[in-house]
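Morning run. Coffee first, then this:
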Amino acid sequence: MAETTNTTKPAGSSARGGASRGGSSYGGSRGGAGGAGARPGGSRPGGRRPFTERAKPEYDQKILAIRRVTRVVSGGRRMTFSVALAIGDRKGMVGLGTGKAIDTSMAIQKAQKAAKKNMLKLKLTKTQSLPHDISAKFSSARVMLMPNRGRGLISGSATRDMLLLAGVKDVTTKILSGSKNKLNNARATMKAFEAIGTKVIHHKIASDRAEAAAATVKLAEESAVVAK
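And here it is:
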């Protein structure tokens, strides 16, 4: 006679597959919000973080070039970063500055401070265009700026960035030299802007204002001590 094989599963296996997998003891507690076997730390204490709106910067900025400068000293090589940065409010004010530091963030901060100290206020027309043709030369870079009466901004390289930050419209530019140096092209553009712009003299950044206020308070305290 042929032997018969018992294919029935033990009682423990059915309980594990039915109750523990699909039942409330395993799947229900894992997927539930506050079950007895819920995973700890499911909900963040205190809820969501409050939304804080970022303060809008005073000027728009554009990094024109970042260079890594290597200097050979007695102890080896010292590497720093040089940053050329342009800023503007798109309403006629534009500035250009450079900064150098061992870190890019510090170099950018120095460039921002230098650009704010070298800002120009341009005298534009009612249509935010140039009043007449302008040309300038800095080092080997030569640029020419010409109003085009409604044809838009036709420009390239660093000259376009400077015009966009200044908010100038309807201008055609030409770089008459073969220079690909963006910093020299930007400086030539700033030199051209000097023909229709005036330097912002009493422009102070927030750090300068804080230093001036601290110096005023210190001077007042010293004078009060002397008076006593």
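Confidence is low (pLDDT under 50) at residues 12-29. Good start to the day.
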